[in-house]
Each structure stands twice: as C-alpha cells, then as structure tokens.
UniProtKB/TrEMBL annotation:
GO molecular function: acyltransferase activity, transferring groups other than amino-acyl groups
Record keywords: Transferase
Membrane-spanning ranges: none
InterPro entries named among the record's database cross-references: Acyl_CoA_acyltransferase, GNAT_dom, N-acetyltransferase
Protein name, per record: Acetyltransferase
Lineage: superkingdom: Bacteria
A Pfam entry, by short name: Acetyltransf_3
Length: 182
C-alpha cells in the first residue's frame, strides 16, 4: 500500500483528549483565535492574521488541500478546534510540526497529538526518521520534542521575518522509537 493510501485511511485519529481530523471551513474562528496571536505565530515565519478571512483563506488554500498530512486538533471536552499537527514526508523521513492555541499551552495537548502522528509515522507509514525543529527560544516546543523522545541534533539558521533566526533541529530513528516504547 502506498503512503497516500495509508494516510487516507488515518484521517481521523483519537487520543485520550483529542480527535485528530480534517480541517473544515467552520474551524475558521478557532483558527483565527490561534493565528491572530503574535505569541503563537512568532517562530513560524508568517505574520499574525488580522482578519477572519485570512484564516478562512488559510483553511481553503492549505489545510484542506493538504488534508492527508495535516490534522485539526479537536478537544473532546467541548468540540473546540485548539490547534493542528502535520507530518511532511520526504522519502523515508517525516517532519513533525504543530501549532496550538496559547490557552492550551503547557497542558500536554501538543505531545499527545504529536505522539499519535509519531506512532503513525513509524508503525503505519514505516518511516525511518522523524524530525522536528523550532526557534531556539521556543523552549515549550523543544520540551515537546524531548517528551516525544526526539534528540537534539544541531542548531541551524532559518530565514523568516526578513532575518535569520537560530533553530533547534531534533530527530529520532525508528529504532530509537521502538526501543523507547516497547
């Protein structure tokens, strides 16, 4: 079975507190709440949204077309879309990314969602390496990566917001993942 077929079969995933699902246009107000916050978008290379229509465009132009590799995070408690997780695949490697509503930072939602995608990457997609990176000052995301068992490999320079910023680069092999979780 090819990767796209496997991803299509895993468009809805569940964790203890989250439903990972495709984005819908009705998620725009929740996405705007996330993407309009400069504290959230600071390390992303994009400017905060200032109008709801920008978040609608983001859903229509990115999240829906990329539905096989991006999951909206729906809080089971109240049905609110509180963020997203994504997995960009290149050969036998996957790059994890996430963004979360600031109100839900520090509550374990990011590692909970990312670990579901990490399991998909290694067990279902049979990827050999999963990576993730963040602005070096984003200690919260660094902690998520460490909770997932990813190891810091290097600091690299990334260009966004018209200047270079130091990014922390993390990685984990399938072998290390299996040793940690079996």
């Amino acid at each position: 079975m090819n990767i796209k077929t496997i991803l299509a079969e895993h468009q809805i995933l569940e964790t203890e507190r989250l439903i990972l699902r495709k984005f819908e246009m009705s998620d725009a107000p929740d996405l705007f709440e996330i993407w309009s916050n400069p504290d959230v978008t600071e390390g992303t290379g994009t400017n905060p949204d200032v109008q709801l229509d920008q978040s609608k465009d983001r859903i229509a132009n990115y999240f829906i077309p990329e539905a096989l590799i991006v999951w909206a995070l729906e809080n089971k408690l109240n049905g609110k879309m509180i963020g997203f997780v994504e997995l960009h695949i290149n050969g036998d490697q996957g790059e994890l990314g996430w963004m979360l509503n600031q109100k839900f930072w520090g509550k374990g939602f990011a590692p909970e969602a990312a670990s579901a995608i990490q399991e998909l990457a290694f067990h279902n997609l049979n990827l050999n390496i999963v990576t993730a990176s963040c602005n070096i000052e984003n200690t919260k995301s660094s902690r998520v990566m460490e909770k997932l068992g990813l190891k810091k490999m290097a600091n690299t320079w990334a260009f966004f917001h018209n200047s270079y910023h130091l990014s922390a680069y993390y990685a984990q092999t399938k072998e290390d993942y299996e040793a940690n979780y079996e």
